[in-house]
Amino acid sequence: MNFADYQKEKISYIYHLLTDDDNNKIISLHGDTGCGKSTVALGIIEQLQEGWSVFLIEGIDPNLPPYLTWHIGTKIHFKKKLDLGSEISFGINFSPLPISIEFGASTQYSKHNFVLTPSEEALIYGIRKQTAANQNILFIADNYELWDVPSKQFLQKLMMTDLNLLSDFHVTTLLVSRNEVSLDGSVLLDVPIRELSDDDIIYILRQKGHSERINIKDIRACAGNDLTLALMAADYYNQSNTLTQNFNEIMERRYNELPPQDQSACKILEPLSIIDSYFTKDETAFFIDFSSNDTDETVYLAEEYLNLAEEQRFIVGEEKYHFINERIKEYFKARLSKREKYHHRKFAGYLQKKHADDYFNRGKHLMLSLQSNDSKIILEAWQLLFLSYLRRASEIGKMNDVYNILEQISTLISRLNSDLVETQQHTLKEFTCGYQEFSKYNYKKAIFHLQSITPSRLIPACLAECQRLILLCYVQLAENPIVVNQLADELYETINSQEFSEDEQYCRAALVLLDVYIDRLNDDHKVKVLKKKFIHIIQHHMGNVTFEEFEACYNRKSCLYYSALIASRQTAQSVKFYRNHFNRNGLYMALCNHLANTIVAGDYITAKQTLNECDEIIQKNDGYYYPSIYKIENNRILLEFLLDEKKFADNRKQYLDSAKKAAMAFSELVVKQKDEVSHVVLFNYLGLSMLYSSKSIDEELEKVARQLSDIDEYYQYFLHDLLFAHALLQSNTNIAKNELCILKSLDVPLLREYRQIFNRRQNEQETMLAAPWKLNGDPIAYHNTIAKACTHVQDPTCQFYGRGFLLSDLQFLSF
Fold it and tell me: What's the Rg (C-alpha) of the chain?
């Protein structure tokens, strides 16, 4: 039996394994490189009938960014598309996140603690969408040993029946690899492919038109069992009377026999060989001319060069390319000789300009560019690698290091001079510990570690990240505004210095600083500078998913810039973005913002729907901790009270009972906040306690006024508004008059959009101050009088800010 017949036999055998029953299966198809495994896999596809969707995922390089194997190595085949023509969609339709924030993950086997990463959720959505009405799915994991680790882990998760990720489909996986592999999940069936014999190779070469005598010994020495290399060797022997067992000699002759113009074009493969995985036209254009300002010309040349290299069977691809074989890649890399390190250095610079968010590849290429123990380059390389580690940890909520980034960092640090090793190890340790505590929302412990790092030991991007984290901790703890001001100014100075060129890190810092300078410190000049540059950067990186997410974050915080009516439209767009990109944390926070905006805008129906979605997210992901869940509870209690207020407007007893019920709920929430501090809940409790005439309100107000004497202006307004109401209801007109003067002097940025309402409110407070006896100490009379004075304002937000006792709920922005 010849090799073709043998392959047909294997195809038939595996086909029947797939179709004989509806049980999910995992089939291991293994054999030596080039023995025809992929041919068998394609033959199986041709046998399948309607009702099947086949995902052919080719492993390219285990060092690919996480999940990129699924994106660039996937082809979906339907029965009518089996010609494998241009209409085949290439890659599951999802946007893979940059390597810096998708780095490393570990499969979790406990269903209760199981959490999918955003890219995994996006992949599942893409798979479901592309299967259409087909109920049978075949995943062909070709070159499985060359898959990146997260891609392997995702496939394993798909096969875990307890997780039910594709429970409504009949799913079979064909693992195509050199060696037999095991995968937890369904039944594993072993199908070996025998090694290619000399006769097999000769038969295939004859089929490809090599009719002359073939020196199979030399061909096997050059190509092993790889049919692609065997064909190259046979082509070589057709054109040469000499024999060789050295593959590089074959490549050298093929290269040298190209016309001079083609040689010049293929020379571009030399610097491209330093890129571990795939490369694009843009990267090819960069290596054609480092300094060219004519982008159109170099990109045109790049496409021409890549097409020529593909014709010569050196590379393969479409929008993204890779070398056909590792030995071909090594041949071109060897031609670089001593210039390899130089190209690594140049490419790191290219990445900084074009893909600043790809910290891992920037750090890796800097590390590979080292000729000596250059301390400046080492410091930059290890800290860029560390930032990639932090980005991944922030995305999946875990500090797993399956790519051994920390080991690479330790190796880099050990190359420093002895006097620097200890200081950099200390920096690494404190940064790691600080971030671990921050990710657990232990803000005080995080500050302890992060502030022990000497700023001069950090490169600008890392310094900005460290300062950003410290500032966030202080904001979340609602610490002294003087300290917040100092920290904000330090971060502002860092990112606006002439030496700072990190667009990605600028946006991260700017989003925090905009919160602080609008919400806490009221600095219009810095707000204008930050907004202008932030918007410019977003426009410059149009189409980059990382910067699109920054824009979504900007939109979700839109109540910093607009009234609730407009802001709720912006937050709705933000919710849509995070939902479409399967970003759990971002979606949760955007829903929090949207919930608050719809409450202020009086859209209680949408608010209720948004609250329900927040609850669903939290309940669906057991074991995943979302930040500041008390903010959801704050808005839940608030929404329920506002609905009751409307319902019981004419029933004083039920109205007061509702106010007391809400106050007690807020009281319990104040105790639960622990290390996450927000005075929102406290002021809601105090306002409602005053509304239902709590017996302890005198003592509690006095205590709060003493403790929060230096709090920022937003809370100052709510504090003095309560103190005014309390004094007025007790007929202490002198105190009330003083409190009203303070209220009029405050210019709270978050409340500026509602200035007309607050002006009318203060006018009515002044009128009541002239005749306090009319209220007779009744808080409901006070409440209704202010509400009546503000209701004629043509803005539904007056129903919220035109109330006698304000309920603060906008100060939730600083996640």
Answer: 33
